[in-house]
Amino acid sequence: MEKPLVSVITPSYNSTKTIGDTIRSVQAQTYSHWEMLIVDDCSTDHSRDYIREFAGADSRIQLIELDENSGAAVARNTALRMAKGKYAAFLDSDDLWHPEKLDKQIRFMEENDYAFTYTKYELMKEDGGRLNQVVEIPDSIGYHGLLKNTIIGCLTAVVNLEKTGPIQMPNIRTRQDFALWLSILKKGITAHGLQETLASYRLVPGSISSNKVKAAKQTWKVYREVEKLSLPYSAVCFAGYAWNAVKKTYLNRKS
């Protein structure tokens, strides 16, 4: 019986230094039934030409070129609209998957009939060097739990589109993935964690996600403007978010 198709969603912008390793980590998967939709957001370097070389050599890879720079949410949503897979998996252009990531995670979902899963992941230096730091995860999380704990790493998330229906990220500067996960969980779906380290997240100094103050402000914006939470409940959720962020940072430094 043929394995279900997985659509790998990858936004790219000026990613020449890292996208090659990202693509090769997908090609190295022991699970081979995937398509990789790479959406270039008007890069000003040689990213498009580099990606085009990979696409020319592997028919499972497709380069989609945006006409104007529109941000990661638009890039991901463009790929999601074109996705043909039963499953959508997310991988940014500077992160990596471990070889058995899809094999183990799709089996985990198929055997348990899960709609949404995530895994543990490790942190790596900007140059790809290992830090021996792993982000631990809960066995499962629902809507109200995720509001207080942004623990799902985008590079680990896999969604069964047959169960969730079409999905799109809100067009906001950052935290688009967090807002998408909330929209899925709000439907009554529970996200389940596979307790294995199956991906590597690249720490890039100066990136939007590395700026803790900006991340906190954007989390608050999601509460108030996207989720339309009341001020008191937003404050409760933000307190939980801040506490979990401190715990995650402490545990990472300790490990």
- What is the SS-derived class? alpha/beta
Strand content: 15-25%
Query: Whole-number average pLDDT?
Result: 93
The major β-sheet equals:
10 strands, mixed
Low-pLDDT ranges: none
Total helical elements: 9
Radius of gyration: 17 Å
Oligomer: single chain
- In the CATH hierarchy, the architecture is Alpha-Beta Complex
Could you outline the blueprint of secondary structure elements for this entry?
Elements: E1 6-12, H1 19-27, E2 34-40, H2 47-57, E3 61-65, H3 72-82, E4 87-90, E5 96-97, H4 101-112, E6 116-124, E7 130-135, E8 140-141, H5 143-147, E9 158-160, H6 161-164, H7 176-185, E10 191-202, H8 212-226, H9 231-254
Parallel strand pairs: 1-2, 1-4, 2-3, 6-10
Antiparallel strand pairs: 4-9, 5-10, 6-7, 6-9, 8-10
